[in-house]
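Per your request, structure below.
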């Protein structure tokens, strides 16, 4: 039985031998299963119809439900694959549970936050941009207020600037000093 613990007293050489022995096996095992997990989640992903959506919040909520389901599927596939080395007798049961939980949940959350519209919304608009002071913490209220004041218009499930000059100005474009924007 291969243990997942290499003690510091065994040294770097033992750790390197361990990685070299287990690396190809792990790659051959998890590579196809990660491909299967990505294929399943891609099949579950349906293109969103932004034209017929009632509001951006509704579209985001629907994508959030889809992303949650995809994270669960991804986690179950990757976590379940971790049972193969256990069934083959290569690892102990505790190691299998630890690898399955960390790999499945870590991979699922990475997929959900990095590769879905809802995850990118959470990571960027709800966390990163407010932390850096580039967006208010209550993004939805900010967008609703901008819409009520006439700065933004809503076309289906997207917000658009009403004025091209304001959009270019906020984007950092140089439209001052007599430069005209096409209407």
């Amino acid at each position: 039985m291969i243990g997942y613990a290499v003690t510091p007293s065994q040294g770097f050489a033992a750790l390197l031998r361990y990685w070299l022995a287990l690396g190809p096996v792990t790659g051959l095992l998890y590579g196809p299963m990660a491909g299967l997990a990505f294929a399943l989640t891609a099949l579950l992903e349906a293109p969103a119809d932004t034209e017929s959506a009632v509001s951006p919040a509704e579209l985001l909520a629907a994508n959030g439900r889809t992303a949650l389901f995809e994270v669960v599927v991804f986690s179950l596939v990757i976590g379940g694959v971790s049972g193969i080395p256990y069934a083959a007798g290569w690892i102990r049961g505790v190691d299998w549970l630890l690898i399955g939980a960390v790999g499945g949940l870590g991979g699922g959350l990475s997929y959900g936050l990095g590769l879905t519209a809802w995850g990118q919304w959470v990571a960027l608009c709800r966390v990163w941009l407010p932390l850096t002071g580039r967006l208010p913490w209550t993004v939805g209220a900010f967008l609703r207020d901008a819409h009520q004041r006439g700065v933004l218009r809503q076309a289906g499930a997207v917000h658009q600037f009403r004025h091209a000059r304001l959009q270019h100005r906020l984007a950092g474009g140089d439209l001052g000093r007599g430069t005209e924007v096409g209407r």
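Residues 44 and 98 are 27 Å apart (CA to CA).

Regards,
D.
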